[in-house]
């Protein structure tokens, strides 16, 4: 048994073979860091964060030692390991730790594995849809349920989708594992979205690259699909939630027909009703996916583009969430008032386009220091 160097009569207790809490697992810190860095060798990144996991018995032993003790100034194992690992990785790579790092290094002391996972990339912009046969998100063919059949020409989808087109362009450009479209609302398949377009965020999962020529990607989309994308910009992770939960008033152009010739007096009836507070019970066509409720909506203005006895072309400015087709035909009385009710004759929306979305407030959220590419 060893003796104290300054007190020969004092015998030293033998050093423990391994730490009581981690039982030697933390001695693998350096090797797990090396594994994690090797896992990031194919990724493009300029900042990182560290995550660590431990076996439950280790956490229980730590809790046992701390039970009843003052924890002031105490750093638990997880926090201390993350700190030490962060310092080590910064030293090895010359790249900074950041809470929103572009790659997450996970040190698993339970299974003794170090891994790296690229953080998602989020790209904001506006899309223009110049087709009446495209939907927004992937919609599996209803005949084959997405398996592929003659009806869908073995494309597996009921309609071609904006999400699929964006995925085909963005995913390979970033070497991502997948991509998802987040948009502020959506238009019907047969409705075009024109003018400034609809705001969206494209989320790229596990990208190997964090930079791409966004202007070139925009050109690729417009060259191959009946779509355009405007104002592409990299944005922070909170943007999908912001874009998807925001509700924007919209401008529409509607082509209106009726069962009888429409007159100037009919137009005066519409003008006199403005502005209109509409009580809209959930339309029959969306009942399968939305609760059957009655919602108040406001139609702010209706302007005439052209009027003939057999067809009116109107510009309608309405509150977010207003169903314009139902505003015109009445949806069997579920929308009140409607053109059908006001004019005392069945009316129909022959054609509809989204002409503008009042989403200017998003500009105030854009950080001027963020990279603007197109």
Describe the structure.
With 374 residues, the chain is an alpha+beta fold. It folds into three domains: 3-118, no CATH class; 121-246, Alpha-Beta Plaits, CATH 3.30.70.2510; 250-357, Alpha-Beta Plaits. It is 26% helix and 30% strand. It has helices at residues 29-39, 56-66, 77-93, 162-174, 214-224, 239-245, 264-273, 324-329, 339-343, 361-365, and strands at residues 3-4, 7-11, 48-53, 103-108, 113-118, 121-129, 178-183, 192-205, 227-235, 250-258, 276-281, 294-308, 311-318, 335-336, 347-357. Strands 6, 7, 8, 9, 10, 11, 12, 13, 14 and 15 form a ten-stranded mixed sheet that branches. β4 (103-108) and β5 (113-118) form a beta hairpin. The radius of gyration is 30 Å and the shape is elongated.
According to CATH, the fold-level topology of the largest domain is Alpha-Beta Plaits
End-to-end Cα distance, whole Å, is: 73 Å
Q: Please indicate the count of domains.
A: 3
Low-confidence stretches: 368-374
Structure keywords:
374 residues, alpha+beta, Alpha-Beta Plaits, 10-stranded mixed beta sheet, 10 helices, 30% strand
